[in-house]
# Entry
Amino acid sequence: MTFFWGKWKSSSKKKQVSKSPPAQQGGATEASGASATHNADSLPGIHDQEIAPYDPHVRVLKGGHWPNIIPKDADWDVFQRYFDAFLANYVETNWDQANILRKHFHAMLPDAMKTCSSTDGSMTDMWKDVKTAVHQSAEVRAATGLSNIVPPDNIHRMQKGDPLWVGDIYSSEMVTEALRKSGINHKEGENYLDFGCSSGSLIRILKAVHPKSQFYGVDPIESAIDWASDNIKGAQFSVSAANPPLRFSDNMFDGVTAISIWSHFADFSALEWFDEMHRIIKPGGWLFFTTHGLNSILHNLVHKRKSPKRVRALFEGLLGADFVFEETVKRSEKDQSLLDVAWGNSYFRPDWVMKNLCDKWDILFFHQGKNQNNQDLYVLRPKNF
Ligand SMILES: C[S@@+](CC[C@H](N)C(=O)[O-])C[C@H]1O[C@@H](n2cnc3c(N)ncnc32)[C@H](O)[C@@H]1O
# Structure
C-alpha cells in the first residue's frame, strides 16, 4: 500500500503513472494541501474517505486496513510507546563504530602530524589530524590518495561548512562498515558506481581506499558532474537522466552505492530504478542504499524540521501504509534537484522492500536509522535466475 502526500502531477510523468497509478495500489490515498478539504467522493477512484482530524493534509481510509493506531488525544509518551513497539523487530542498537577508514588513513600519517594518539585519541580528533595533514602536506596527499580540493559554493554537495573538507568520510565509513557486516569483501579491480553522486564526495574517499578499482559516478546535476570530472582523478563521472536506463551495460558493476536517493523517489520510480540496478549489477554483486524510514520521522521532530502535528501524521501514515510519498521537497535548498514529480520525500518500511523486491533481491543487511540517526540502510544482492 502506498500513501501519496502532495498534488499528483501526472501530466509530466504519464508513462510511469499509467504503469503503477498511486490510487490503485491497495486502496492507497492521495492528498494535497490545496484539495484536502474537498469531498473525497469528488476524487476519481478514491471513495469512502475522511479527513484525519489532526492534520488537514492527510486523508485516511475509513476503517478497514488503516488502523487507528494512535488515539487522537494521545500524548507524546503514548506515541513513543507505539513507535518503540513497532520498531522493536527492526532496531539494532549499540553498535561500535568501526572507524575503519579513520584508522587506515591515520596510520598513513607521519608521527609529526599526529596530534592525537592513534590508539586512544577520539575518532573526531583522528579525522581532524588526517584532514589537517591532507590540506597541509603534498606528501600526505600522495600517501593517502586524498585531495584537499573543495567544491565552490555554487556546486552541489551535501556537506557544506567544513573548511577541512576532503569528501564524505562519514558515508564512506558507513558503506565500508555495512559491507563488512554483510560479509562482502572488496577485491581489487572491481567496478563500483555511486548512483546520485552529486560532486563525487563519496567516490573520492572510496577511491583513496581502493585505488585499484574503477569508480563511476552519475547524477542529473550537470555542474556537479563537470566539477567532479575536472577535479576527482581516476573516476568516471557522467550526467544521468531522471528516469532509467543508465548508459551502462548489463552486469557491469560489482557494487552500487546510493545515499539519500531512494529517500526521494515515488514508489513507481523507486521500483523502476531498482530494476535498473538489477540489470547493471553482476550476479553476486551488491546494492547499498539508504532511505527514509520510521526513524526519519522522529528525526524530523527532534531537529524541528517538521511540526509535531505533521510528524505524527507522517508516522501514522507509515504505520498504515508501507510507503509514504510527500511531494513537497524544497528543491532549491540543498538539492537543486529535478523538477520531477517522481522526486520528493519518500518513507518506506522494510516490509515494502520485502514485498516488492524479494523476488529479485536478497536482503543482506538492514540497519534502522543508521545514516545520521535518520535514514535506514539496506544492502541487497541480486538473486540469480
Ligand atoms: C540528497 S542528494 C545526495 C547526494 C549524495 N548521494 C550524497 O549523499 O551526498 C540527492 C542527489 O540525487 C540526485 N538525483 C536527483 N534525481 C536523481 C535521479 N533520478 N537519479 C539519480 N540521482 C538523482 C540529486 O541531483 C542529488 O545529487
Q: What stands out?
A: The pocket of S-adenosylmethionine is lined by residues 156, 158, 168, 171, 195-198, 201, 219-221, 240, 242, 259-261, 335, 337-338, 343 (CB under 6 Å). The radius of gyration is 22 Å. The CA atoms of residues 193 and 275 lie 15 Å apart.
